[in-house]
Amino acid sequence: MKFLTRQEEQVLLAVFRLKDNACLISIQAQLNHFTGKEWSISSVYIPLSRLEKRDYLKTRIGQATEKRGGKAVKYYLLTKIGFKALAELEAVNEVMWRGMRGFFAKLENS
Amino acid sequence: MPKKPSRIALSLLRHVLPPQDRDYLLGDYEESFQRKLEEEGALAASLWSWGQFIQTAPEYLWESLYWRLVLVKNYFKIAFRNMFRQKGYSFLNILGLAIGMAASLLILLYVRHELSYDGYHRDAGRIFRIALEGHWGGRDFNVAVVPAVTAKTMIADFPEVEDAVRFRQHGSYIVQYKEQSFREQRVVFTDTTFFQLFSIPLLKGNMESVLSAPYSMALSRRTAEKYFRDENPLGKTLKLDNSQDYLVTGVFEEIPDNTHFHFDILLSLESLKESRDPTWFGQDFVTYLRLSPGVDPTALEAKFPQMLEKHMWPQFSKALGKPAAESMSIKLYLQPLKSIHLHSDLVAELGPNSDIRLIYIFSTIAFFILIIAAINFMNLATARASGRAKEVGVRKVLGLQRRQLVLQYLTESILLSSLSMILAVGVAALALKPFNQISGKSIDISGIFLHGMPLYLIFVAVLTGFLAGSYPAFFISAFQPIQVLRKKTKIGLKSGTPRSVLVVFQFTASIVLIIGTTVVFKQLRFIQNKNLGFDKEQVLILDNAYLLGEQAISFKDTMKTYPQFVNGSISGYLPVPSSRTNSVVLPDGDLDVEHATSFQAWIVDYDYFDTLGLKLAQGRFFSRQFSTDDKAAVINQAAARQFNWSDPVGRRLGLAANPKDIQPYKVIGVVEDFHFESLRKTVGPLVMYLGNSRGNISFRLKTQDIAIAVGLLESQWKEFLPNQPFEYSFLDERFEQMYRTEQRTGKIFAIFAGLAIFISGLGLFGLAAFTAEQRTKEIGIRKVMGASVAQIIFLLSTGFTKWVVFANLISWPIAYYAMSRWLQNFAYRIDMNIWIFVLSGTISLLFALFPVSFQSIKSATANPVDAIRME
User: Fold this and answer.
1) B738-750 pLDDT per residue, tens
2) Do A73 and B4 touch (CB under 8 A)?
3) Whose CB among A64, A66, B138, B608 lies 3.0–4.6 Å from A72's, allowing a Cys bridge?
4) How many angstroms away from the CA of B17 is the closest CA of chain A?
5) Sequence-ordered list of residues with C-beta below 8 angstroms from that of B304, at least 6 positions apart, any chain
6) Residues B503, B802: Cα–Cα separation, whole Å
7) What ipTM did this prediction achieve?
């Protein structure tokens, strides 16, 4: 497995959470919400396009609306490889972060 | 109130967005914009749209650049692989290109050095030299010298003239300090303003007072070190020519190489009485003016006739006794300081100048050599294309666009040309020293790395790579994948026509250079062997003879007691650069001023004729048996022609240093014209008379062992003058020095012609190897069918031979035209006969046939089994 950058990881997670409704705007909103920072369109799009190139994501073209200036919307979905990558990531993270919660709690108490 | 994001921002974004997702992203932008518009209002929304653009555009750009760079990295990888896979071709390519580039680089350095002359003076743009153009006595004059009073008059009359400086040369001096003495050649009298006009740093001494007093001097740094070593030179005195002491008042930095004059010792002009001469007779002073900023030199020139009207013409008319302007004309004009080195070739220049035409010729040669080398590159690349056809086919099938293929090939050729350039810089650095020797320059290696030169070199490397690579790139990228993959066509052979055109071009340029070289050398040989009218062999010249003073005759007579010394003559006037005097000459008995002309008048002695081996046409030469010979003159045939004298002997003529002092002479003989000036000019009129001119003693020798003769002369010199420097030269050597420029041109021509033909040959070598390789199977089959080795060599060579013969036909008229223009410079020149052309053609053919037949023989003698079994 190739390592993902932090942005790629977060974007991938957001796509996973949004299920069928993962388009750039909703992903951006979700990321803004969780991280508390303002994500620009390009900072969402670039990780997305890289993940797409690696076949972690597949796409579906949605309807064009007036609100979008008559342009279609592109939805992102996890592929099998994408799922596998997320699962591996979770496992690795779980192992690596194990015990840290208790450590932080102790730090805060002392 | 805008309902849409800024159109400009959108269209800018459109250009940076990745094409495959452009529409979706624009939709996303618009949606976000609309939301902002609803939630936060128009201003925030439009600010947001610009903010997004500024923030995101670089990110997109970098993203796309990143992938392109990855591609370029791949191009480089492929380029290196190709280079190493075909080491032979790559070597030929890089070598040829590097040699071509190194040659061009050297020429470029040379040209830059030539163009830099006198540019370093702070006020170079405002400094002008006054030159004089005139016509009197039936002759035209165009000289770099004017009367002494000109500078003073101009400063007084024209407020535009800020300052002036004058030079007056009086030849060389023996300079003595304590017991050591040297002969100094580069000595000049000049004004105290020298250091103000010319930006030559005064290291020691006072700017205001240096050279202001009579008998004061300034020395160059090295000259000062030579005489005084560690002592402080200021306040010391040096003795000049054993007679006059000069006080050192200044030391200056060496005059830079790129200056049109070179002096080691400056003497104050105040020391010379003639510097204060108020008359306009005689021109001896090289004069420079510095104009006030913003003054138009042509406007100033327009005022010169008025000034001459006021000051000069009245003096002349008074001397002649009638209006002088009727029989003569004199005009002054200004030469920009920076143009003197390349554009001025007047009488009495301070040193030999260069010629702008030479700069043009060399630049053209540099350009052509570079092109010849680039053509090699193109030809080899297209020829090799068949080897890479499959690669191109596969790449195309896999979806590489033509644009990317072109880019890949361009990368390859630029890589090769850059490598060649690096190599070329190294070669040029190594070759600089011999090049300096040949060209007589002192160009510094640092020139390669200064003044934006590296940028320029990178530019040339990329441009060469681009130009040389573009044709093969477009040629190769045009392959149809289906055809090349099916392996039916021999692609490389199809590009034969443009390739042969390029080879013809290469050889045309090379042959023109070869013919040029041959003509230059033949002309030089012609000059050296021409019947000069005097015998330049076996003449030894004693240089400091004037130091002997009255002892000169006894010195000469003592030398003549040795059997090696056949004859000797005391005279400073020799048919090589030496003393020259232009005198006013009046033909015939009435000594009419109106027919006055002016030409060379030489002071000789009784033995001059025999010593130099001159030939008489009529009458006799000076003889001790005739007591009246001190009022006799011998003229040359050119003088007789000028006066229209069919029977000159016995006629009278007047000689005058100035129009007031006319001395009558009787012509006793006519000498056959001999070349006392360069062969570039026709023989001018000349008159000789007896007198004291002790500049040199020339001896005619008759010996095999010159060293013994020189030894004898030196020991005798030491007897006469124990502490004076002994210096000598040979007439033939000094004669050859007159043609040093031509010899240099010839040598440089020869080198570059050699390089051009070598590089062309290198290219043919590669092409021949390629052809032989392509036709391996054909040759194998032919041999099996019974073709002889000779037949196959003939088969392979005819194509190339045809091209070279064709190139000859094109180049001959070009070379003929160019070289007849060059020969116009010489009054006495060779005829260009057909043999020069045939010879050059043969040389070019040999150079073409050698590499071709080398390859042909290799493939013709190979075992046909190996050839046919291939596959």
Assistant:
1) 777 777 777 887 8
2) no
3) A64
4) 9
5) B331, B332, B333
6) 11
7) 0.80
